[in-house]
User: Fold these one by one.
Assistant:
Number 1:
Amino acid sequence: MPNTGPFAGIQDVELCSETFAKKEDEKDKLSELRKEFVIPSKRDLKNKKFGFQHGTSKENTSGSTGDRNEESIYFCGNSLGLQPRRTKEYVNRYLDTWASKGVFGHFTDYEGGLPPWLHVDEAIKEQTAKIVGALPTEVVVMETLTANLHLLMSSFYRPNKDRWKIIIEGKAFPSDHYATLSQIAHHNLDPSALITIDPPSASAPYLSNEHILSVISEHAATTALVLLPGIQFYSGQFFDIELITRHCQSLGITVGWDLAHAVGNVPLKLHDWNVDFAAWCNYKYMNGGPGVIGGLFVHERHGKVEQVPSNPSNTPNTQSPSTSTTETTLSYRPRLSGWWGSDKSSRFRMDNIFVPIPGASGFQLSNPSALDMTSVMASLDVFSLTTMDALRQRSLRLTGYLEARLLRYPGGAPPYTIITPANPAERGAQLSVLLKPGLLDSVLHHLEENGVVVDERKPDVLRIAPAPLYNSFLDVHRFIVIFHEACRKAVGAPGQGGKHSEGVPEAIAAT
């Protein structure tokens, strides 16, 4: 089979060998980052008891379980990232501070400790900004993804008699549908105000730039907001954020981005791309832990807090014959407000005068969970060992290798199709594989029995995501061997050929 990807010119026999995968890992300096993470063992995944079995990850701090083949193959960082080894250390520091210092942990910078809880949101701004390509003042770690989308839409979705529609991607994650529809309902508008961009045909699972722009243009005169995913959760398509943002703004439309599957996965330049706002979670490629606190971006032009004359006519308020002053008031973008978004110098005055912090921090509501922030901090410190550009280059090779191996199915045509764009510039780490009908349950069972973790989307899709921070080329090789074996077994099972696998109940196979 011709090889036009990053491994062009390499013979199939060499490309598909374990030796090749090991050599790729050996010459890749970033492969050392794997040691920063706890890789679940196959035994621990099957263990029905809490925690580790003796002799696995709990006792091992080198990144290996001794017998490398006992490590699981974890390609599910697009759902939940693995735990950085330093997370436990950081969380223990937090717990020890709370236990030994109580409320003083808010204010005191202890030797060998973490930043005081009062300042922990500020402490991780710079690292977060580098990952999303923003100014530190444009980002804040707070709340969770859908909550942040609601907070941002409460500020940026301002429907009027001319513009009231919201445009989203038709197959966006359900929570985005719920959030936008509820915002529309909140303004007493009809659900028809929600416009979806759908694939032009069933055979084209992803959206071309031309199609996206044409739908936006069609509804431009009546659209108040466009909200799109940076990377589509199902197909893995990486949207052209810069192009779409520029197009929307040229038509007078505010544009926001759900970056759940993009942050920590692909390089972003939110400031330079002039994005209005964005939100993300920190538990997928960011490895912050299940349900951990999220983050948001507000471009600096929307985060200004300025003193403006309170008198529209700018007529001086004469206080004495010889002295004249102009009364001023604060001008800032409307938003739902809370005390943690108020300027620190006035936050504890309790005078009920809201003075927002300039930038994204002014959108905060309550003090953030110090436990959550500690977990995010541990992951950010791992990201600080490299750059997003370097991770992207490794990811292109890693996912390119996965693609090359998937396309080389031994013994004929594969019983699956890759539905993620073939152009590496239009995808992140994830490849979505559409299995022939009826194979999914059998394939998944075989993968799980052999210590492989991937994400499934009913009825027939596997989402496979080698994360460049901790996955290896050897992981890909081992996965392909097991996956192809699973496919052959599923295809050969009695009752196959479009029907459910042997041993799978009808009720499950029909879902």
Number 2:
Amino acid sequence: MPTLNKTVRSVADRYRKATTPRPDGLPRRRVVLLPLLALAAVLAILVGLGITGSSTGYLNQFVSNGADSRLIAGKPQSIRSDEWFVQSTWTVSQVEQGLPPRNTSFPGGMDATVQHDLPTLDWSMVFHPHLWGFLLMPIDNAMALKWWLPAFAMIAAIYLFVVTMLPRRPALAAVLAIGFFFAPFFQWWYLSITFLPVAWAFLLMATVIWLIRSGKRAERYVLSGLVGYGAIVVGTSIYAPFIIAATWPAVGFAVGFVLTRTSGLITGFWQRLKRLTPLAVAGGATLLGLGLWLMTRWSTIESFTSTVYPGQRLQAVGQATRADLYSIMGGVFSPGLGAVNGVPMGVNASEGSTFLLPGAFLVLPLVWLVVSGIRRRRSVDWLSIVLLGLGVVFVAYLFVPGWDALSHLMLLDRTTTGRLRLGLGILSLLMVVVLVVRLNERRDEDVEPKRLPVWIIVMAPLTALGANLIVARWLHMSGSPLVTQWTVWIVVLVLFVGAVLFLTLGRPLVGGVALLIASLLCGAGVNPVYVGVYNLNDTKLVAALKVVSSHDSEWVGIGDTVVPTVALVESGLHSYNGFQSSPSDDMWSQIDPSGANEVVWNRLANVSWAAGSGAPAPYNPAPDQIHMTFDSCNAFAQHNIDFVLSERALAQPCVDLVRTVQEGPQTFRIYEVTPAR
């Protein structure tokens, strides 16, 4: 036993020595780089094996009678159609066409450098590092890089930020970063446009700290350059709701950190502000880069913003309901979200997803610490004050009407009630980190009491427990199986309340581990473990399409499933099927020459067809759906369509059956359009 104790003490001493910060308070190089190198090694392994979390395997049931050999664990999520039906389908199409800047599937083509996060041979690819694999690798490995790099960039940025704030706690930094990645919100919204703004936000916050504290020019300029580059990466993703939600917490942190006198060895505000000069230079370069990108793609962006849906959508303040509040605070109940398709937390699992929000229950401890610091005539903790104030602004945006002009000035109206959850998640994590920092400072400065008062230590977890029990009661009254069948929420609740307790007790690593386990229970099983992408180009069906088609043949796909659309788009052939971000003028001038139905087709939507008679007659079964009827004898078909792919036999006089293909459980028919008699 004495030998064991001696070994433990020796290991602890080595750990303390290894994590001792530099004289400027920043972490040493090995504390920063070793975990990031380990993360890079994991990324390399996953990419080398072609492992993704893609739900493209959802297509297997339509074209195969057997199990999907690419599926390693879990199951595809049909609700993740933005990934498996939209982005992945168009990505395969790009590969088939040779990565052109303009995809030619739709008549008139589509700007592939802006829409659907697609790889191209355009100069702007320099700002899409997650797509570089398509220039060098087989498609499965390239898809793996696309899948993992944005998420791993976020984990790395969070680790860098937390370990910069807490240089003696690299283990806590790793635990918080990984736990945040497994948040249900990220897993149900698993896209690069979700992760990249968060990665940039945490990189920006970490850079602000290094600029104020570090005297090394290389560190200051390298980090500032990365922030500038990252800003262009995020800006070219063009999804404002997530960008705005992630940017405000980062800006709030930067302002609060610069205002707080104890943020570094430099005590003067203007001196601290001057230290951000490299960031300002990087910001200027960012504006030039983004400006060039926007100028060369303005017509595409203008086309998207001028659509009927979603158009230039602005969200009024105070639109959230009581159900929205319960849903936001209901992260504990996420394990069964997919089984109930998100109801009643949202209209589907993605919309109902949220974060575990320990920061919401650390408001009282932070307020007490701010007041205590003022009473001790210490410098004002502007960082905590700004973060708390930003939390008030976010809550007001959700629930308080009447200040739309200010919201518009802050660009908050360009996010939405649902997307602002991303900002709340970031803000919660910031509050956790700042609380740990402030409690550490009290111990280091030998301030009494070193711990928070007992009544606060008791109130914080009790409030967390009470809030979640209120949500549980609401779910029970709604008849939701989230509380009656998916009882693992009880374990998650215990872990969550325990995390809040240990954070207020000054035991952050224990609290962080509890949050990590809770996040794993809530989010780890959402996406499958999958090899590469399910590619319909490997099927007999698409092979037949390519044999029948000539170079300039135009197609229409008809069916009750998504297979005709996916097959035509992924094949790289020319067709009138697919998901459009904005309409192709050439295509819709052929379908609707008079423009009488523009309100129907001028939108972000999937374009699909069914057999019918007469003109195409577009209509919207849902805001993001355009459905039309196909009559082979109609003038539109006679002038524009060469072949039809159908899941059913067509009883129309102006088509001839060319080929029948049996693919798994389905029989597909290929018809050639013939002249009307």
Number 3:
Amino acid sequence: MDKVRLDVACVALGKTRTKAQDLIKDGKVKVNGKVISKPSTLVLESDSVEIDDADTYVSRGAYKLKGCLDSLAIDLRDQVCLDIGASTGGFTQVCLEKGAKKVYALDVGHLQLDRLLDQDARVIKMEGRNARYIEDSWFEDPINFLCMDVSFISCKTILEPVFSKLKPEHCAVLIKPQFECGPQYLNTKGVLKSEKTRNKIVEDIKHFVLQTYQDVVVEKSQIQGRHGNQEYMLYAKGRR
């Protein structure tokens, strides 16, 4: 009998592949009653695959944005939001939970957005879009709030054109120091261990954002990156 990867088998059960990989790594998937934590594990069609997805959020990233907005008591009621690096839609989901009337879910990839969010009339899916080349003509509405979670690129590379072209009133950005430094700073697992280097990166990005916004707050993310990297949530308001 043919075998398939476990994350692919989960896609057949209605999950996006990214979400399936997160669930597997978090120990939420069983094969024949046994927890399997490697997405690449091969399974048979005849195997019993069970998913414990009682969690209401479509990604771990949702908790990072939620923690930031909750701690600062940020209300998104009736606001138009832009989620850059939307992926499965964790940030998008939190924006809707906080009262957003519309969320543009933008990602350079395809077929990642959670099915229920894809079907939500308040969510405008924007697949295959590179935010480095963003234009205000892409959107029907002025953007009130920007949230962003991108990987393998410096967040400043995206923020510069976004701040210039869209002028969001306030924003929340996930800072991932492991993607802001050279590979020589990372250990073999891709983790940036040096707190000094992390702090320097965070201060540099904060200084960059302060050129556009008057008030900037940075907090440690309540949840670490997938490989144990310490990440940070930056919130900014009051455009200059």
Number 4:
Amino acid sequence: MKHRFHIASDEDIKGGRVTDVYFARTLEILKVKGIEKRVRAEFFAKKLPVNYGWGVLAGIEEVARLMEGKPVNIRSFREGEVFYPWEPVAEIEGRYADFCVFETALLGLICQSTGVATKSARIRLAAGDRTVASFGARRMHPAIAPMIERAAFIGGCDGVAVIASAELLEVDPMGTMPHALILVMGDTVEATRAFDEVIDRDVKRVALIDTFNDEKFEALRVAGAMKERLYGVRLDTPASRRGDFYRIFEEVRWELDLRGFKDVKLFASGGLDEDEVIRLKPIVDAFGVGTCISNAPVVDFAMDIMEIDGEAVAKRGKWSGAKDVIKCSSCNERKIIPLGAATGECACGGVFTSLFHPLVTEGRIVADLGEPKKIRERALQAIKGLAL
């Protein structure tokens, strides 16, 4: 069947067709020459995007799904775990001929989703206890919207906008109303009333107030018309009209409070990043963050061989041999050690435990991959106290 969209099918990916051609040629050579060496290869990032000190790992479930049924062993960090530069986060072991053509796909599965999860986690820290929704699916190919919003949710977003993504996560989709509805209806208040009349009562009524007129006056008009049924107002003011976004929110808040609408929440969206979220947090109750998350810089993971037939070996600039990453349960001190080496006791007196766990054993998924909500909880716990 001819693809209607320019995407690879599950069969293309599982069949090793989504690979750089030099891996296919490598496999051809190995077969012709009868080379069946067993190797260990590890995944790590020697550096992170600019100004990042840490990352949140994502994409591990898809790694397991890709390699399911193939004669390999994989151990890895759990999805949602924090990692640092140079720490191996996963290792694959088996005959190189059995997995060499999957390097391209394996890296792609974790590089992009980890980038999205990490940016989402940074936004989460910036927002504190404020609500954060992922609004950026429209900036990416629709085929990968569920992957992007799953990673955004894992990293810390409270909700996602796309219906298919929400179904994958088993949450309700989160959104307000578009400018298009207001333009078609011809008036902000009329559009909000129509929303209130038609849409299920479980959906919070959040009016968009920057389409036609001054935000302050539109907020008051909508609040006066909707009374207690209005949950909040959203400002998505374009940069050309924005001026000082914080001051606009302050003005709207003042006027709403002065007229008895203190319970009406303020939502911000449009071109937000960590710095802007931090700046607006004192006055804003919720954030819709789009391109910043969905177009997050990827984490530049590499997959490198570091053991062949039981012998430690690596290319220049890399550490050879199988490794473990251990973490103190008391002070969170971390170390990279040779696999099987004694962990010792932490200087604080705490106990070191490994961050690695079996994922796939001889092609069988042995890990509890976890529900997205549980992975999100793990990530939120892991980033607690970290600096941006």
